[in-house]
Specification:
Blueprint lengths: L1 E6 L6 H14 L1 E7 L2 H8 L5 E5 L5 H9 L3 E4 L6 H11 L2 E4 L5 H4 L2 H6 L3 E3 L8 H15 L3 E13 L16 H5 L7 E5 L2 E5 L1 H4 L3 E6 L3 E7 L6 H4 L7 E9 L2 H11 L16 H6 L10 H9 L6 H9 L15 H12 L8 E13 L2 E12 L7 H18 L7 E3 L4 H12 L6 E6 L1
Parallel strand pairs: 1-2, 1-4, 2-3, 4-5, 5-6, 6-15, 7-12
Antiparallel strand pairs: 7-13, 8-9, 10-11, 11-12, 13-14, 14-16
Helix pairs in contact: 1-16, 3-4, 7-17, 16-17
């Protein structure tokens, strides 16, 4: 039996684990599921004979290296900032590595050593990044093969709540790591190119600058710029393209309301507040509002943002639970972002029976045989339940499929990489269709 070590058994790993265990007998693999929580790892094993749970503290170097050394391939589903130590050990012990995270500078710095050992370090092989790369590159390569000149590329993705489970004014619930949602857009300036002009949006302006999207049969959405789109100019072979933009999808009105939380400073993760376990949610909110005598906290919010009882934004404020006086924070000291995460973790959690929804949309503009065309490619994927979510499927399945193909010698190009080569994206996109993950394409002359 070949051995796969999966590190991190959180919410995004459910479909990945189920996929690997379904394949385990035929593929002759044994899956070791490692997590800080042995209880969680044991739960995810579900008593399967080809799975073994393991309590693993990633910061315990001896234990970490022992487990990595005995596996044939490592899958890291840890938070992105924890990958590097695992990756360094994989180089040391000559092990292939698969992650769904963006390639960090530290990961990229290992490329020469990874190539020298003939290893595959496949990153960005989840949903976004991941399926976005593969589906976009498939169409871009097809268009180039036809002789098309590509002048416009936009790519959007969002993890949302399915219409039948949409029960709050934000039209949003957490389907992946809440902390990543709270900190979205921080740590850099959004960069892209539009009609030949470079554009930059700092975090303070990010949620004020949105684009409207309409997805056929699914309604209206909005999108804000996602990180640095320009780094994909060379990775996608789009050098000199007029428009290159990547965005994050939300339901209409989300960004304007989120911008109010940013304006107050509730998403700030740069400092820690003391004695937060003594604060109610209402105390926390009041601490960030101007002091105006004679006004309630609700009135202060309305006055500060000039909103009334009838505004849609006010309904969003009420739905968050920030005005509650009956709940205190569990953290003794925490940043505003951590406290907001605790508030919204209660307000936006998936309930039994809830289903989430993944929406991905690509827009290509190109010229071919003297005519100008627009091609639209759309993916909508619904989850099954709060465990096997659409997010877990679209993140975990590509990870598992890539891992097996690396083990089987079907993906052989060595180095630190993302899934933009046909040897990676072609078979994985075909297999994803078996799980209902497929795109609908339309082409129009413009």
């Amino acid at each position: 039996m070949r051995s796969i070590l999966l590190i991190g058994a959180g919410r995004s790993a459910s479909s990945l684990i189920r996929y690997l265990l379904e394949q385990s007998t035929q593929q002759h693999i044994h899956l070791r599921i490692a997590d800080l929580s042995l209880e969680l790892a044991t739960q995810k094993c579900a008593g399967h004979p080809n799975a073994t749970p393991l309590a693993l503290d990633i910061h315990n170097q001896t234990q970490r290296q022992t487990e990595i050394s005995r596996a044939d391939l490592i899958i890291s589903m840890l938070p992105a900032f924890m990958h590097l130590e695992v990756a360094q050990d994989c180089v040391t012990f000559g092990k292939h590595l698969v992650t769904a995270s963006y390639v960090s500078d530290g990961m990229q710095a290992l490329d020469a050593a990874v190539r020298e050992k003939g290893l595959v370090f496949m990153n960005e092989i989840g949903l976004d990044p991941g399926i976005d790369h593969m589906s976009a590159m498939q169409i871009l390569d097809e268009l180039r093969a036809q002789g098309a000149h590509i002048h416009h590329f936009e790519s959007y993705c969002g993890g949302l709540i399915a219409p039948e489970s949409d029960t709050n004014a934000w039209h949003y619930k957490f389907t992946w790591a809440p902390r990543n949602v709270i900190l979205a857009g921080q740590g850099g300036v959004a960069k892209f190119r539009q009609n030949g002009q470079y554009k930059y949006i700092p975090y303070s302006q990010l949620f004020k600058r949105t684009d409207a999207l309409h997805i056929e049969n699914w309604g209206d959405f909005e999108a804000y710029a996602n990180r640095d789109s320009m780094k994909y100019e060379s990775l996608y072979n789009l050098n000199g393209i007029d428009t290159l933009y990547r965005g994050t999808i939300r339901r209409m009105g989300y960004s304007a309301a989120w911008d109010q939380l940013v304006t107050l400073g509730l998403t700030d993760d740069s400092y820690v507040l003391p004695h937060t376990d003594k604060l109610t949610y209402r105390d926390f909110l009041a601490a960030f509002l101007p002091e105006t005598q004679g006004q309630s906290v609700e009135q202060k919010v309305q006055s500060f943002f000039n909103i009334s009882d009838n505004d849609v934004a006010w309904k969003k404020w009420q739905d968050m639970g920030l005005f509650r006086t009956d709940v205190k924070f569990t953290l003794a000291s925490a940043s505003p972002a951590q406290l907001l995460e605790e508030v919204l973790g209660n307000a936006w959690k998936l309930e039994a029976g809830d289903k989430d929804m993944i929406v991905m949309y690509h827009r290509f503009g190109y010229e071919l045989n003297g005519k100008t065309y627009q091609k639209d490619s759309t993916l909508v994927c619904l989850g099954d339940d709060p465990t096997f979510t659409g997010m877990a499927k679209t993140v975990g399945l590509p990870v598992g499929m890539a891992a097996l193909r690396i083990l089987n010698g079907q993906i052989t190009t060595p180095g630190v990489q993302i899934p933009v080569k046909p040897e990676v994206y072609e078979p994985i996109l075909v297999e994803l269709q078996q799980y209902g993950i497929h795109f609908t394409e339309t082409t129009t002359e413009v």
